């Protein structure tokens, strides 16, 4: 399954270790993480020569082609919110799903559009430990694979 892992690139990257944990978990389970390069320490510098429009177009292609969006939404990020909304806006016709995680201790500063999300194609976790993250991913990734197969007629 192809996964678009969304995280803050230009904002608060204090949860980068958690995002790397999520990516490692998904890759160990055999999934392709389209956005793994975002986990590099100097990703903004590495992509500095790419025009903004090219990044937008590339990321939209990845969003359109992924089976699942997993978003770490603890930090304030317009991009992550856009990506979640884009997937959920298409979910009824594509079968795509979103798993959104944020650090429970940060809930007062997390957008209520994230923490209060009840969209049927989205599951949200306020986590405190990596074990909670692993259990959440284990519980929901297989269900997403099944729903995506149904939507694609496979």
Give a structural overview.
With 154 residues, the protein is an alpha/beta fold. The chain has a single domain, classed as Rossmann fold. The protein is built from six helices and five strands. Helix 1 packs across helix 6. The mean pLDDT is 91.
Describe how the helices and strands are arranged.
Blueprint: E1 2-6, H1 16-28, E2 32-33, H2 43-46, H3 52-65, E3 68-72, H4 78-94, E4 97-103, H5 112-115, E5 122-127, H6 130-152
Parallel strand pairs: 1-2, 1-3, 3-4, 4-5
Helix pairs in contact: 1-6
Distance between the termini: 13 Å
Summed up, the domain count is: 1
Helix fraction by DSSP (H/I, runs of at least 4)? 40-55%
Largest sheet features: 5 strands, parallel
Q: Record the strand order, biggest sheet.
A: 2-1-3-4-5
Mean pLDDT across all amino acids: 91
CATH fold type: Rossmann fold
Count of runs of 4 or more consecutive helical residues:
6
Give the CATH class.
Alpha Beta
- Structure class: alpha/beta
- DSSP strand count: 5
Radius of gyration computed on alpha carbons = 15 Å
CATH architecture: 3-Layer(aba) Sandwich
Q: How much of the residues is beta strand, in percent? A: 15-25%
Shape, principal axes of CA atoms: globular
H/E element order: EHEHHEHEHEH
Unreliable runs: none
């Amino acid at each position: 399954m192809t996964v678009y892992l969304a995280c803050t690139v230009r904002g608060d990257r204090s949860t980068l270790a958690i995002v790397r944990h999520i990516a490692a978990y998904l890759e160990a389970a055999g999934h392709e993480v389209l956005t793994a390069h975002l986990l590099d320490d100097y990703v903004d510098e590495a992509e500095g020569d790419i025009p903004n429009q090219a990044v937008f177009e590339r990321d939209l292609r990845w969003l359109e082609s992924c089976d699942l969006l997993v978003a770490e939404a603890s930090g304030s990020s317009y991009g992550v919110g856009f990506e979640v909304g884009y997937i959920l806006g298409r979910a009824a016709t594509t079968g795509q799903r979103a798993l959104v995680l944020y650090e429970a201790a940060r809930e007062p500063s997390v957008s209520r559009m994230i923490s209060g999300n009840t969209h049927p194609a989205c599951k949200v976790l306020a986590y405190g430990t990596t074990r909670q993250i692993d259990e959440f991913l284990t519980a929901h990734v297989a269900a997403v694979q099944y729903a995506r197969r149904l939507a694609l007629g496979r």
